[in-house]
């Protein structure tokens, strides 16, 4: 149909915009599925190879990978840019496409730097050339993070533009379920592709397999981005009808957007809540695969497939939450429930280490995934509610900044705590336990912060701030 085409002309505003259908929601989820696969490649496969196969200290690995989250302030800027400066007449789509092309290319280039770092360690040891490669690897992950920000932030803002409050829980459940499906399917496919590799496989064979993986998968991810977003903004976006700044988007400067962003104290409260909650959710991310390898004796393929078990639990949690739990408990109570479940799941992961039974670990990871799904869905729905239409991209950028900084902090702190635990504690299992116990306490703090969040207060204060900006212009 003509309404599905991405043209050079600005979109017209129909009298009555159509509501999203379930199939359209699933199509949008293909973008998130691609992000899930990319996350698996960088934080699962590449992380494991650097720590286990190349024997790079976990702190250095975590620090380099975390750079793609440390550059997250770019999310606010890209969000504001998508509010104020459309590309080919569209506020979100052009940014999504260009960013996707860039982050898929950057991922392959980062892998090539990893191999050079490994060669430098083997040839020169930890000398100046090696530290130079460490710095270059951190730089490559920073570029990857900037490209990712330029794509994912406008995409999340697009979800605000095209949804209504009544269908938003379903949209969040479906789109983020597809993120998890991407992780699960990616884990299964990656596990099969890497199945021939065992603990004794020569590094050259590992290198060839990983290179092939980072060519094929990113190309598929870019294709999924095009399929997911083609024609969506033109047909469904309500940005023009909601904004009090229609035809004045160029006046949404970064400074004015930040004034709206900081007008309500609820913004700060929710920012800190997201920070604490996300740190707790992802504290395990840099060490779960090494945990499976060192404590349970699992191969690369087996530890990669842990992501499939986590993803399966998350998928169940996401699906049930948007359609069943939120309508019954409400957004805040659902999120609180998820926080308590996450704390309990980390207790199970610690206990699994005592048994050294891989099946027990897999079960604990499924429970963690379910708890993560419940928590994430509740928090995401709250996040979209705590967003002003005129500056949706800026708000989404701020929430993304909080989550990205939290993931960076979790990645760095998790790796550093593991190294510290290995030095201070007598056995590896105690070192890993030190890392896993931290999110238990963190989630209790997150619940206290969430109790103080008030959506109605935010919406009232945000409207007043937008009105003030308009008065200043006049």
Describe it.
This protein is mainly α and 474 residues long. It has one domain (21-473): Up-down Bundle (Growth Hormone, Chain: A), CATH 1.20.1250. It has 19 helices and no strands. The longest helix has 35 residues, at 128-162. 56% of the residues are buried. The model is unreliable at 1-14 and 244-250 (pLDDT under 50).
| Assigned CATH superfamily | MFS general substrate transporter like domains
CATH topology: Growth Hormone, Chain: A
- Count of discrete structural domains: 1
Low-confidence stretches: 1-14, 244-250
Main sheet record:
none
Radius of gyration: 22 Å
What is the number of helices?
19
Shape: globular
Compute the separation of the termini in Å. 42 Å
Q: Strand percentage, roughly?
A: under 5%
Helix content: over 70%
Oligomer: single chain
In short, what is this structure?
This protein has 474 residues and is an all-alpha fold.
List keywords for this structure.
474 residues; mainly alpha; Growth Hormone, Chain: A; 80% helix; 0% strand; disordered N terminus
């Amino acid at each position: 149909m003509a309404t599905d085409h991405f043209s050079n002309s600005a979109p017209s505003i129909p009298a009555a915009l159509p509501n999203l259908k379930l199939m359209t929601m699933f199509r949008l989820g293909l973008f998130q599925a691609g992000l899930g696969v990319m996350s698996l490649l960088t934080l699962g496969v590449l992380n494991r190879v650097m720590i286990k196969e190349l024997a790079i200290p976990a702190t250095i690995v975590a620090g380099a990978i975390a750079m793609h989250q440390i550059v997250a302030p770019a999310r606010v800027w890209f969000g504001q840019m998508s509010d104020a400066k459309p590309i080919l007449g569209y506020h979100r789509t052009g940014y999504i496409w260009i960013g996707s092309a860039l982050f898929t290319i950057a991922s392959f280039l980062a892998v090539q730097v990893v191999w050079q770092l490994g060669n430098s360690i083997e040839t020169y040891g930890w000398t100046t050339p090696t530290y130079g490669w460490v710095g270059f690897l951190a730089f490559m992950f920073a570029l990857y993070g900037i490209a990712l920000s330029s794509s994912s932030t406008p995409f999340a803002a697009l979800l605000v533009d095209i949804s209504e409050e009544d269908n938003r829980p379903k949209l969040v459940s479906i789109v983020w379920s597809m993120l998890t499906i991407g992780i699960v399917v990616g884990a299964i496919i990656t596990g099969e592709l890497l199945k021939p590799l065992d603990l004794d496989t020569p590094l050259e064979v590992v290198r060839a397999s990983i290179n092939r993986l980072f060519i094929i998968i990113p190309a598929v991810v870019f294709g999924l981005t095009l399929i997911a977003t083609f024609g969506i903004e033109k047909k469904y976006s309500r940005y023009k009808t909601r904004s009090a700044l229609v035809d004045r988007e160029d006046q949404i400067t970064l400074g004015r957007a930040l004034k709206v962003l900081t007008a309500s104290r609820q913004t700060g409260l929710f920012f800190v809540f997201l920070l604490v909650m996300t740190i707790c959710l992802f504290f395990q991310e840099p060490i779960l695969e090494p945990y499976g390898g060192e404590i349970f004796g699992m191969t690369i393929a087996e530890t990669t497939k842990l992501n499939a078990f986590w993803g399966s639990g998350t998928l169940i949690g996401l699906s049930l939450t948007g359609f069943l739990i939120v309508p019954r408990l409400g957004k805040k109570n659902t999120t609180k429930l998820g926080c308590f479940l996450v704390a309990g799941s980390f207790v199970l992961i610690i206990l699994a280490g005592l048994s050294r039974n891989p099946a027990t670990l897999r079960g604990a990871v499924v429970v963690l995934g379910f708890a993560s799904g419940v928590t994430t869905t509740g928090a995401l729905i709250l996040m979209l509610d705590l967003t002003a239409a005129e500056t949706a991209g800026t708000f989404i950028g701020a929430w993304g900044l909080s989550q990205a900084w939290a993931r960076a902090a979790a990645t760095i702190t998790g790796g550093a705590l593991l190294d510290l635990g290995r030095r201070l504690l007598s056995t590896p299992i105690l070192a890993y336990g030190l890392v896993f116990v931290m999110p238990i306490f963190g989630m209790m703090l997150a619940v206290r912060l969430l109790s103080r969040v008030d959506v109605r207060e935010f919406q009232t204060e945000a409207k007043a701030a937008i009105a003030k900006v308009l008065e200043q212009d006049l």
